[in-house]
Design goal:
Blueprint lengths: L1 H11 L21 E10 L2 E6 L4 E6 L2 E2 L7 H10 L3 H19 L3 E5 L11 E7 L5 H7 L4 E2 L9 H14 L7
Parallel strand pairs: 3-6
Antiparallel strand pairs: 1-2, 1-5, 2-3, 4-7, 5-6
């Protein structure tokens, strides 16, 4: 009975989702990460990095999707799905890209891989950890500049990411407030 009451209190105050998963709380930073430096931001969910001793890599952030900035098939899908104009989608994409630039551009980060290390375009797929222990993929969702995009088998933080997206939506943060 105590556990049920505690769970109800945590749900009411945002500590747990009704399904029982933890809320939007930064997970512990893994002890083994690939050290990298972000050399540029392509858009809200894609960056270029330099891994020590290797050529630059394009990295697609796992578990998230941001509005498109560049004219592409994805831009056309975003326009169709959202019902917004191409200009409106691009403006939202630029807000997400600015958020990513503010937090990642020129910074040393740690990259965490999941089951599948690369996508069909050859990009490295990763969770990006800041030096202070913050999981950036979670941060951009919590602040409302991305939506969850879960592509199995890379699902390590799927429940956490859904909780962060829900929190951002309820609070009207970032793109959810526009």
């Amino acid at each position: 009975m105590r556990a049920v009451v505690l769970a109800a209190v945590l749900v009411a105050f945002g500590g747990l989702s009704p399904q029982g998963a933890l809320g939007c709380v930064n997970p512990p930073r893994p002890s083994t990460l690939l050290p990298a430096t972000v050399t540029s931001v392509i858009d809200g969910d894609t960056v270029r990095v330099r891994l020590s001793g290797s050529a630059p890599e394009r990295v697609r952030l796992l578990g998230i999707d941001t509005p498109e900035v560049h004219d592409s098939a994805k831009m056309r899908r975003d326009v169709r799905r959202s019902g917004r104009s191409k200009e409106a989608v691009r403006a939202l994409g630029l807000l997400a890209a600015r958020f990513t630039t503010l937090h990642l551009d020129g910074r040393a980060v740690g990259l965490e891989l999941d089951v599948q290390p690369r996508d069909v375009y050859g990009r490295l797929l990763a969770y990006v950890w800041l030096d202070d222990g913050t999981l950036f993929n979670m941060l951009i969702l919590r602040e409302g500049y991305a939506q969850v995009l879960t592509v199995p088998p890379n699902v390590r933080y799927a429940d956490l990411f859904l909780a962060c997206q829900q929190e951002a939506r309820v609070q009207g943060r970032g793109l959810w407030g526009r």
